[in-house]
Structures are given as structure tokens and as C-alpha cells.
Amino acid sequence: MVQAWDHDPPGSDKLVPFGVLELTTGLLTLIFGTRECSDFWGDCMTLWWEGVRSRGVRRLVVYLDNGPRNSGVTRKFLRRMVQFADWSGLEVWLVYYPPYHSKYNPVERCRSSLQRKWNGVLLKCWNVVRVCALRMTWNGKHPSVQHIENPYDHEEPVTNAEMKQINARLQRSETLAKYHIIIKPLKPRGR
């Protein structure tokens, strides 16, 4: 039995969850990393896509909150999404919930299901987190659970010249420019 204090000191390691919920199939992928940043987001999307790319998808619609790491104006995030679109060959649609409305994003309900599975469990290592995550179900199915160990110590800044090239690739909605962005790959998938 693991002993714990009533108020544990901060852990030396931190795991950040990232979830991809495929609305058409109900399949959930959970990826844990050490730090939430734009590069982590990009790596998670790449890892997820490597596992599902055989399904014939050509367009990916990503529903997002408008957090500081993934907003439609965050340079590093937009760079990673353009890189992902080019690498995967997918047309990527970034669709944002208005401020304070992310509770309507179905993946947020997955997070509460996960929290119920590890409620009261001392999350002392990756193995314990993995087992708790594998125990949860969403729509009667267990999630795919993965781990990225990259510490993401340094992210390269996006220069103004690079941002100009990125902005040229973004198709923003005329009426909802901050909330609906389309990124077309340089070479579309399957063509």
C-alpha cells in the first residue's frame, strides 16, 4: 500500500492529457505528455493520425476551445497545424468554440469520465495513470492510451517572415475569422 499525506507536495513529474474523440466512430485516443505546448499538440496529432490514417479520411475537423496554446492566433500552434496538414495530406479545419463554451465540446465530457476512474488514486507513475485511463470507457469502448516522453524544453519561435507564409496558407472565415480556419495541404492525400 502506498502511503500519502493529506496534502501531497507537488510531484516531480507532471503528465498532461490530450484527447482525440472521433465523433463518427466514438473512438477515443488519450495521449499523455509532460508539458502542454504547441509542439505537444502537433506531436499528439501526428501520433493519433499514424494510428488511424488507413480509414480513408481526407478532411479533419478539429473542435477546439480558444485556449492560449491552441488559439487561432497562436503562432507556434498555427505553424504545427500547417506542418501537420502538409505531412498528413489532410485538409484541416480548426473550429473554435466561443469563449467559455468549451463545455459543449464532447471531448471535455471524456475528461470527466477519466477523472472518475482515477478519483482517489495516487497517480504516482505513468503505469498507474495508464491503467486508470484504460479502465475508463466512452460509448462502451476503452480508449487507446499512449505516452509521449519528450520534455519539450525549447520551442523555436515563429519569425515574422515565417508567420507571413503561414498566414498565406490559412483560409479564415469572412464572418468568424478567429473561430473557423481551413488549412489545405500542399499535396492533398490520395490524389
UniProtKB/TrEMBL annotation:
<dbReference type="InterPro" id="IPR011518">
    <property type="entry name" value="Transposase_36"/>
</dbReference>
<dbReference type="Pfam" id="PF07592">
    <property type="entry name" value="DDE_Tnp_ISAZ013"/>
</dbReference>
<protein>
    <submittedName>
        <fullName>Transposase</fullName>
    </submittedName>
</protein>
